[in-house]
Amino acid sequence: MKELGYFVYQIYPKSFKDTTGNGIGDINGIRSKLEYIADLGYDYIWITPMYISPQNDNGYDVADYYKIDPLFGTEEDFDNLVIEAEQLGIKVMMDMVLNHCSTEHEWFKRALNGEQKYKDYFIWSKNPTTWESKFGGNAWEYVEKFDEHYLHLFDVTQADLNWENEDVRQEVYSIVNYWIKRGVKGFRFDVINLISKNYPLENGTGDGRDQYTDGPRIHEFLEELRANTFAGNDDILTVGEMSSTSIEECRKYASKERSELDSVFHFHHLKVDYLDAYKWSTDFFDFEMLKDLMTSWQLEMQKKDVVDTLFWCCHDQPRIASRFIPASNNEEQLRKNKSLAMMMYLMRGISYMYQGEELGMENITFNDITDAVDVEAINFYNLTTNLSSEQKLRALSQKSRDNARAPMQWTAQGGFTTGTPWIKYNDNLDRINCEREITTEGSTHSFYKQLISLKKSSETLMSGQIDFMHTDELFIYTRTLNNETYKVVVNVWDRELSYADKYNEVIINNGCELSDMITLKPFSSILYKI
Ligand code: TEU
What we know:
29% of the residues lie in helices and 20% in strands. By secondary structure, it is of the alpha/beta class. An eight-stranded parallel sheet has the order 13-12-11-5-2-1-15-14. Strands 16, 17, 18, 19, 20 and 21 form a six-stranded antiparallel sheet that branches. Strands 7-9-8 form a three-stranded antiparallel sheet, with no helix packed on it. Strand 20 (505-514) and strand 21 form a beta hairpin. The structure holds 1-O-alpha-D-glucopyranosyl-D-fructose.
């Protein structure tokens, strides 16, 4: 499967590169860095939403699906981006936010004006359920005029769309087809497994997610979406973002026999540092859970020949360089960056890497709540009463989405903007910046480039069978095709470990001493043929 060798580079446009000096990244900034991206070996760029939006959730609150927000540039800038990217062998993947739209969208405004057609585009209730918004608080907002509540699974300004309504589905197809016509070659569908709600609406258990996650009509809706848009267009790559899903459902979403999506994002492996499933817990890491989750998802997806996705980072996640066991010096940090990359991206699946990950960018430090920009972070801080301010700031430093959204570190001075960035830089610019990464031998950047080229050049690493053979402390797997077997051994710990094995040809040695035994220094890893 050729798609198993794809590498996608995710761009959060607001924080990538600003060319106007207004402190906000833009399309021309992306254009100016296309060669940089192509040089690393990526096949696609996935750009998070750039449609017209009040930006209450950084573009995931879309007010007009057909227009580029002038904040990011002109329509022409976008068309040029698509053309220039293609010239460098890079396809553009757009983010489609179809579970909800902004309350600034014309549909919602007309609904509020009392136009029944548009009121039916949304989900209303006289007796709201106890469902919780993903960003905190109740998921229903009261509208006095109708004496009814509308549903918002996310921010109060992100009203859920009523997919039961055929007109809504037709609108969605028109939107997707419009972007296909404009040359887009991929779609990432935001929280797409939340679009089918269970009727009649009931409280369900806990925060209510069992009432709308992988809901009753989800497969039907996705099949219909494909049939009316990208069906038969093999050029287009789709990935659905799945919230709180299961292996069983994902095998259906991305199954070759069905006609829904090409691949799925699932997030369980990124909750191994959530103590008792609580996102804001600190200083916790469950390695057993990580091994179990990675192993079961990989093997179960492989069994059914379903394409999996490989990722550590995105705009909603803290930086992987700062996650799990902390490194205590630069040398360890470098080994850790490389080891986690090796652990993830040599597995079976399409790789998604997030801007700055290739530089080893790290979490920011929250000294005060005024450092937070994200609506989720601010809500957490304001609504959480059982933690002290210090504890909350520590939690934000480890888990906030703002960690991923700090500006790209192009140079020791920043290099993201000539003005004041909309969100503050990390204070480690002199230690971590692109200029330095590119010119330093053995850097994280050079390792990412090497890894991408290695996987692309090896059928075995791309599509070979995966098998796992972890020990208590080491993460270990093999990739096998015909008579060739590669083995990956990773130490995620801050202590030295050893492993007895016969290595044939060593392909990458990231900090191991080799004798009869393999001695793995803290955070080291190795790739060899057996
Ligand atoms: O995120 C979906 C989602 O549920 C999470 O990743 C969410 O950010 C997390 O649970 C909060 O802890 C998608 C987008 O990626 C995210 O940026 C949007 O805010 C969200 O949907 C709403 O569109």
